[in-house]
Design goal:
By secondary structure, the chain is of the alpha/beta class. It is 43% helix and 9% strand. The longest helix has 26 residues. It is globular and about 60 Å long.
């Protein structure tokens, strides 16, 4: 009887060890955007928790008290870096987390204006002015699939280091996703090329498309239309200058993210006699595919859906 009991105990311990080895790897991320990439590489082998408010912009991070346990248990935590979520590492350490914090965007951004045309930088009188700092880093690198592919390499490497026995599986999934990114990049370029080069002028309410413009041969006009309700109303002179800048740019539309305040942009577009479109997602992922109000997007597919929807929106706005 004793032998049977000991054997049963040994089997139980072995099963417990196997279960621990095959349990999903706990991963923390600072935004839904990164969560989508990690899901693409990790699949069912990872359990991803987004730290901070899930609806927050990808470059404005703020934790919730309930995130401490998730941060503490994460084997690895992924952040964008570039000034968007700098508090994550300190928060994770304070919560008792011991896993590495991987900054995906490190070294991938360029300082300054990117594809912005310096001749189109208009300085306006009034509360909506925002001086351009050539030393500033634009964090919106995710609008370039080529840079995202580099971040996928970093995700794969970190997951493989945390779960070496699944290194091969992570590599297979990462390779497949990078192939999807390459196809996405090709498709975006083909769509943008439907717009004559002289018409690829983007006026956006939020300075988030510089990497997209740089990658696909567009020109971003440096007119700041990102006013929010927290600002005072612009003066008539400021509005007139903005309208003039849009007219002079040759742009066919003002492109807005519905998540950002757009009252000023609507006014400027109307006065400049150009279209106003508010169908791009610059900082947050769509929860559902365009035109589908029921089924949520599958994990690992939201980034591609966002980029395709954004591209169609931009092309529709710019085409003659």
């Amino acid at each position: 009887m004793m032998l049977v009991t000991l054997a049963a105990c040994t089997i139980s311990l072995a099963i417990g060890d196997d279960a621990a080895a095959t349990a999903p790897l706990r991963v923390g991320v600072s935004s839904p955007l990164i969560a989508d990439w990690v899901a693409a590489v990790g699949g069912s082998m990872v359990q991803v928790t987004t730290l901070g408010a899930t609806g927050a912009d990808a470059h404005h991070w703020e934790p919730a008290p309930s995130d401490a346990a998730a941060a503490r248990s994460a084997a690895v935590t992924f952040v964008m870096g570039l000034g968007t979520d700098s508090g994550v590492a300190a928060f994770t350490k304070a919560a008792g987390g011991s896993g590495p914090v991987v900054e995906l965007g490190a070294g991938l951004a360029r300082p300054g204006r990117h594809a912005r045309d310096e001749h189109d930088d208009h300085h306006h009188d009034g509360p909506h002015d925002r001086p351009h700092d050539d030393a500033a880093v634009d964090p919106h690198i995710w609008h370039d699939p080529q840079r995202v592919s580099q971040m996928i390499d970093r995700i794969e490497a970190a997951l493989a280091a945390s779960r070496t026995d699944q290194r091969g599986a992570f590599a297979v999934r990462a390779t497949a996703y990078k192939a999807e990114l390459a196809a996405l990049d090709k498709w975006i370029r083909e769509q943008i090329e439907l717009v004559p080069a002289a018409k690829r002028v983007i006026v956006s309410t939020h300075d988030g498309l510089s990497y997209f413009a740089e990658r696909y041969g567009c020109r971003v006009v440096g007119t700041d239309l990102s006013a929010t309700s927290g600002h005072a109303d612009p003066s008539p002179k400021s509005v007139a200058q903005l309208v003039h800048a849009v007219r002079e740019s040759g742009a066919r539309a003002v492109i807005a993210d519905p998540a950002h305040g757009a009252a000023l942009a609507r006014t400027v577009a109307r006065e400049a006699a150009v279209a106003f479109v508010d169908c791009v997602h610059l900082d947050s992922l769509p929860s559902r595919a365009k035109g589908d109000t029921t089924a949520p997007l599958q994990a690992g597919t939201a980034y591609g859906a966002m980029m395709r929807a954004n591209t169609l929106c931009i092309v529709e706005a710019l085409r003659p």
